[in-house]
Amino acid sequence: MTELSHPAQILAELIRCPSVTPLEGGALNYLEQRLTASGFRVQRVTFEDENTPAVENLYARLGTDGPNLCFAGHTDVVPVGNEAAWSKAPFSADVRDGQLYGRGAVDMKGGIACFIAAVEDLLEQGKAFPGSISFLITGDEEGPAINGTDKLLKWVKEQGETLDACLLGEPTNPDSIGDAVKIGRRGSISGTITVSGTQGHAAYPHLADNPIPRLIKLVDALLTEPLDEGTDTFQPTNLEVTSMDVGNPSVNVIPAKAEAKFNVRFNDTWSADSLKEELIRRLDQGAGTPPYRGSNQRTAYHIEWRDRPSHVFLTRDDKLIDAVRDACEAVTGRRPEISTGGGTSDARFIKDYAPVVEFGLVGQTMHQVDERVDLADLDTLTAIYKNFIEEYFKG
Q1: pLDDT, one tens digit for every residue, the chain (395 residues)
Q2: By C-alpha distance, which of 82, 175, 161 is closest to 369?
């Protein structure tokens, strides 16, 4: 039987907690016990909102002086999917061929385990921090993200707490630890375009008005020209049509309505508002294009924007960024690239309260069947986190 290292032992205990969003599953209980034993003052708080499940969250702090270096993460995990497809039970934390299996192994209980192990190691070595270390842990990152980090940050501020810098332990490395540290994220907005027509028999099109060709013209207007070419720090903005639906089970019926859903990941060329204006301009242009020969009727459409867009941000705190990169280079010999790619994360909330960067495990198996992490990577990341903590407080 493989003897697990310090961070691997912590991770195994966390994986055995079935904390599928929004369930706490015992994960926060375990963290509370562990952090309390290390001298942290731990506070648990539950948030709820209309039409969303209640979510438990945790904030813990060691020390009272500043600066307050915060580690942020989430213990909630996505569902396991087809459990029969797993080669190891998803909440058993089994080890095979030098890898620890389980839902949340890399996204992101592994990052939490490594940071806790790093802090515990430093405390055991008698290290003193000229400031404070805190943990901001939510149970709602993989869900609607309403009753988690967003509300927890507001609550922390109301308690008189200040976060001076934050490391979010999401799995940021594409292939191996040392690939990338994320210093920003693109924004995200989503919408649904609806075109109404007149239902009718496919053999009598003059008695109907088919909304599908009209919707196609609108979608084409969104996609024809690139939104931008990218910037020095961000890749180009991309719009993806994610669904086109008419809800029509028949082949001989012209539908009465057609819908298209889309998502845009945008860089700092745009704000959410300016991007919406540009998309509406394009839709209005497409609405004036005849949907088929002989038609000159302008297309009427309705657009509904999804609530709570994610805003683009870029962290410019050199001390924080360099501390992570220097720590990684000291341990691995590799200096991670600066990245702003990928999707959204809870960093979009944290950036309003403190400078935030993201650095964690390799994310190749996150959300997959047989999610797993190399045991060696856990030790490497723990060593980087230890070096980072010392490096940050040196300043």
Answers
A1: 578 999 999 999 999 999 999 999 999 999 999 999 999 999 999 999 988 999 999 999 999 999 999 999 999 999 999 999 999 999 999 999 999 999 999 999 999 999 999 999 999 999 988 999 999 999 999 998 999 999 999 999 999 999 999 999 999 999 999 999 999 999 999 999 999 999 999 999 999 999 999 999 999 999 999 999 999 999 999 999 999 999 999 999 999 999 999 999 999 999 999 999 999 999 999 999 887 666 677 899 999 999 889 999 999 999 999 999 999 999 999 999 999 988 889 999 999 999 999 999 999 999 999 999 999 999 999 999 999 999 999 86
A2: 82
- Taking the C-alpha atoms of residue 91 and residue 121, their distance in angstroms, rounded to an integer, is 26
> What is the spatial distance between Cα 360 and Cα 110, in angstroms, rounded to a whole number?
8
Q: Report the distance separating Cα 331 and Cα 333, nearest Å.
A: 6
Bond preceding residue 244 cis, omega within 30 of 0: no
Chain centre distance of CA 55: 17
Is 142 a catalytic site residue? Answer: no
Which member of 13, 56, 76, 358 is catalytic? Answer: 76
Backbone torsion region of residue 387, taken as left when φ is above 0, otherwise alpha when ψ lies between -120 and 50, otherwise beta: alpha
Distances (CA, A) of 387 to 73, 115, 180, 384: 19, 11, 17, 5
Q: Which pTM does this prediction carry? A: 0.89
Q: Which of 141, 142, 346, 377 is catalytic?
A: 141
User: What is the spatial distance between Cα 45 and Cα 35, in angstroms, rounded to a whole number?
Assistant: 16
- The DSSP result for 61-100, as a single string, is EE-SSSPEEEEEEE--B-----GGG-SS-TTS--EETTEE
Does residue 390 have an active-site annotation?
Answer: no
What type of residue is 45?
Answer: V
Ramachandran angles phi, psi of 278, nearest 5°: -65, -40
Are residues 74 and 346 in contact, defined by beta-carbon separation less than 8 angstroms?
yes
How far, in Å, CA of 222 to CA of 215, rounded? 11
